[in-house]
Amino acid sequence: xxxxxxxxxxxxxxxxxxxxxxxxxxxxxxxxxxxxxxxxxxxxxxxxxxxxxxxxxxxxxxxxxxxxxxxxxxxxxxxxxxxxxxxxxxxxxxxxxxxxxxxxxxxxxxxxxxxxxxxxxxxxxxxxxxxxxxxxxxxxxxxxxxxxxxxxxxxxxxxxxxxxxxxxxxxxxxxxxxxxxxxxxxxxxxxxxxxxxxxxxxxxxxxxxxxxxxxxxxxxxxxxxxxxxxxxxxxxxxxxxxxxxxxxxxxxxxxxxxxxxxxxxxxxxxxxxxxxxxxx
Amino acid sequence: xxxxxxxxxxxxxxxxxxxxxxxxxxxxxxxxxxxxxxxxxxxxxxxxxxxxxxxxxxxxxxxxxxxxxxxxxxxxxxxxxxxxxxxxxxxxxxxxxxxxxxxxxxxxxxxxxxxxxxxxxxxxxxxxxxx
Lengths: 280, 131
Description:
Chain A contains 10 helices and 10 strands. By secondary structure, chain A is of the alpha/beta class. Chain A starts with a strand and ends with a strand. Chain B is an all-alpha fold. Chain B has a domain at 15-90: Orthogonal Bundle (Protocatechuate 4,5-dioxygenase, Chain A).
């Protein structure tokens, strides 16, 4: 039987990818960000999963306004890094896991979550920056990755509660998979940031750290927090944090082990947050 | 009975909801077209002519020509789509975000390094009306 061993949470700021790709990660501005992931890179080497299900959002890259799926699961064998207007990032292609992805789709849809099945899709910084942060600049990513895209661009986005329950449905699906795979679920995006309007540049350390505390200790409670609280307190783009609840819902009901926690302001316009939680 | 939209009471913020998305459909789809290098070249060669190929309002076209991102957002644009115009102009996301705040690029960058804009005094529209 497959099982979920751990979950990883991280921001996916595009400027972090650009800093790595352009060889700027040693600059004083970026050093503290990458230092926060040194432990994580070693940890991932020692706890390499067989598959990562990576929850992220597409930023008007694969999905324009022609189609806006709320939840989309990538079932393809391969996904190419997208050209977001600056040329594709110089990172390896993402190898999928079509068998497990199809199995999860089958199970989760029967549990009343309407996933869109995607068999062709380029992946943007939302997916590749977390991989870069956790793996550095390898020739190939360490294992297959199932992209799981959530609409957080056009409101209304799914509620925290729905995301948390979706995570639980994903957990059930993984545990019903016959092959003995070790699976990690990653939740990405956030933390506080606002990229638009006269209020751009909003950062809320208190909200972010309270979110981290509660995600660890009281995810059910955090899942009840309405959208407006994220928008008002963490900025219009801070709403991305609901995606972390999918990864948290995929974890066991027993309290997790907090392997690593990191927080830093700023990376470009954004507060960077990062957690590694292991199932016991 | 109108739908509840509590996010209208957040200052300096336009939430890209289904209504905004409907208004901004062609504006955003124009932005999307700039992901192709050939389209970027054509747009740069004659911006007005390129914009005229799209079913956008005259107001939307003027806002794009002026690179007035706040106005683009008011007319239904979304920042992730509008960012394609910035990429075409060779601007970073920080430059684009800063351009909407009334601050200089340097002031905005310094504010971020100092920890960003505080939520205090920036949560409700009435807090800005007093200014």
